[in-house]
Design goal:
This protein folds into 2 domains: 79 residues, no CATH class; 182 residues, Hypothetical protein af1432 (Orthogonal Bundle), CATH 1.10.3210.10. Helices cover 67% and strands 0% of the residues. It has 16 helices and no strands. The radius of gyration is 19 Å and the shape is globular. It binds fe (ii) ion (FE2) (2 copies). One fe (ii) ion binds next to α7.
Length: 286
């Protein structure tokens, strides 16, 4: 158990988040605008066009195999018309996440590369499950999946020695970082990620998905939390687990029930997600 003073210290350091880079203002503003259906199209295309790198990234992603758009998309207006605000919001956040995933980690145990592969795979699987179950918005599932473990990065940045301690304990006891957090009364990386998501002014549904990805019982959107839990399970089956998870692979029945996906669907889902994971990896490759 963490001593209360150390726990309070960590909480206040996470609360401060001064050591973490903010999302660029242009991204926060765009994400906000893209969440409002009353936003005019030029209010969105204008700021993206003024950021040539972002504009190019968005167009490259729209034209990738993953989005399966038949005709070539050459303008932002066309992208928004074809895909809608929420998907373009996903693209903008995916572009921003690439910068965040390249952040120099501080704990010697934090494996940024494997964590990024895990996040990308979780995003792909989460979108697939959302579409299969039809109970969750696929874009929300994708973004929440991509950013679900961002709290680990927050902990690494503000308290690297604490991340090292959690990691070592998880490895020694054959358990996961989340389980060590619970057993030691340490602030969880889920809520830490939600705090960072709020700080970045992410939409509330995405923040909820990040915050409750290990605690379905606390989620506002139980189906989204279930998508996160099953995605994690599938990633582990695919050897794409988070690098700090040493626990046994366990199927969470409550999560499957929440999505009303019969267990007979597991094999086809496992077969179907490979292609999508590969496509999302390509999306993030450039
Ligand atoms: Fe997690
Ligand atoms: Fe994870």
């Amino acid at each position: 158990m963490l001593k209360p003073s150390r726990q309070e210290q960590l909480l206040s350091r996470l609360g401060d988040l001064g050591d973490l880079p903010a999302l660029p203002h242009v991204i926060s503003d765009l994400v906000w605008k893209l969440n409002d259906p009353d936003t005019g199209i030029t209010d969105v295309t204008g700021p993206i066009s003024r950021e040539p790198t972002l504009a190019a990234q968005v167009l490259r992603m729209v034209n990738s195999a993953y989005y399966g758009v038949r005709q070539e998309v050459t303008s932002l207006v066309q992208a928004i018309t074809l895909l809608g605000y929420r998907t373009v919001q996903t693209l903008v956040l995916s572009a921003a996440a690439q910068g965040v995933f390249r952040l120099r980690c501080r704990s010697p145990r934090y494996d940024q590369e494997t964590m990024t592969l895990h996040s990308i795979a979780t995003a792909a699987v989460a979108r697939h499950l959302a579409r299969t179950s039809r109970k969750v918005n696929p874009d929300v599932a994708f973004t929440a999946g991509l950013l679900h473990d961002i709290g680990k990065l927050a902990i690494d940045q503000v308290a690297p020695e604490h991340y090292t301690t959690l990691y070592d304990e998880a490895r020694e006891n054959g358990t996961s970082l989340a389980e060590v957090e619970t057993s030691t009364g340490s602030p969880g990386h889920g809520p830490a990620g939600a705090q960072l998501g709020d700080h970045w002014r992410l939409p509330a549904d995405i923040v909820d998905g990040i915050g409750c990805h290990h605690t379905m019982d606390r989620a506002e959107n139980v189906e989204l939390a279930a998508v996160m839990l099953i995605s994690d399970y599938i990633c582990r089956m695919k050897s794409l687990a988070a690098p700090d998870n040493f626990s046994e692979v366990r199927l969470n029945r409550e999560a499957w029930t929440a999505l009303s996906i019969p267990s007979t669907q597991l094999s086809p889902i496992l077969a179907a997600v490979d292609e999508e994971i590969a496509q999302v990896n390509e999306l993030f490759a450039a």
